[in-house]
Amino acid sequence: MNTEITIHPKLQHCGITTGNLDAMLEWYGKVLGLFVHNRVKAPAGSPFKNVAFATNDEVNHRLSFFEAPDVSIDNERERHARVQHIAFEYESLDDLLGTYVRLKKLAMDPLWAADQFFQTAIYYEDPDGNIIELNTNNFANDWTVTEQLRALPPQVHINVDPEKMFAARKAGASPSELQERAVAGEFTPATSYALHTTRW
Fold first, then answer.
1. Cα separation, 159 vs 185, whole angstroms
2. Would you say residue 134 has pLDDT above 70?
3. Class assignment of domain 84-191?
4. Which H, E and C letters describe the chain, residue by residue?
5. What pTM did the predictor assign?
6. Closest to 164 (Cα-Cα) out of 195, 190, 134
7. What pLDDT does residue 140 have?
8. How many angstroms separate the first and last alpha carbons of the chain?
9. How many CA atoms lie within 13 A of 156 on its CB side?
10. What mean pLDDT do residues 85-113 have?
11. What rounded mean pLDDT belongs to the chain?
12. Are 130 and 19 in contact (CB under 8 A)?
């Protein structure tokens, strides 16, 4: 038993408080393929009504949802300390762009998309206004991505239109070519993302 050196545990799950449990579970099911392993009543005396334990992989739960009847959405959350976003990683750019198209068919549009050099990311807002990032690495392995992040210059994030990226990929551009073209500004959105109107 080690009592001197810091052990590095893995991040396993996040807990989210909501007043809208059914809508949240439906949204996360559509976006992430999240399924509920168990939904239970909270213990007597708890501030919560129900708790749902959900995952989209082999771990027993990645997200736990705590339903509190009197909870309301904080429309000024950008001015308050909070969790800014939760991110989920795809294995490939094709998986990320394919998910964008699938969600668009469900009338679920992103808030923002960007090539951040070390990764490409698309951001969505859940029914309670929480920001969910969907991303994929732009380099072959985690070690390379980490080195690219360490060397990241300021202001390297480039807004992109995932629709344009999807079209270019369908036309035969490789993922590395897409990243080069994104950095060159080829996939800039026709209109700027209205980030100031969201709960960033």
1. 8
2. yes
3. alpha beta
4. CCCCCCCCCCCCCEEEEECCHHHHHHHHHHHHCCEEEEEEECCCCCCCCEEEEEECCCCCCCEEEEECCCCCCCCCHHHCCCCCCEEEEECCHHHHHHHHHHHHHCCCCCCEEEECCCEEEEEEECCCCCEEEEEEECCCCHHHHHHHHHCCCCCCCEECCHHHHHHHHHCCCCHHHHHHHHHCCCCCCCCCCCHHHCCC
5. 0.91
6. 190
7. 84
8. 42
9. 15
10. 96
11. 92
12. no
Higher-confidence residue of 145 and 51: namely 51
Residue 164: count of CB within 10 angstroms of its CB: 18
pLDDT for 128? 94
| The pLDDT of residue 186 | 95
SS (H, E, C) 113-130: EEECCCEEEEEEECCCCC
Average pLDDT estimate for 142-160: 84
Question: What is the average pLDDT across 23-45?
Answer: 96
Residue with tokens 């951040």: 116
Q: Is 193 exposed, middle or buried (0-12, 13-18, 19+ CB in 10 A)?
A: middle
pLDDT for the residue numbered 182: 94
Residue 195, CA distances (Å) to 113, 166, 192 in order? 11, 22, 9
Q: What is the pLDDT of residue 155?
A: 67
Give the residue extent of every domain in the chain: 14-67, 84-191
**CA–CA gap between residue 122 and residue 170 (Å, rounded):** 18
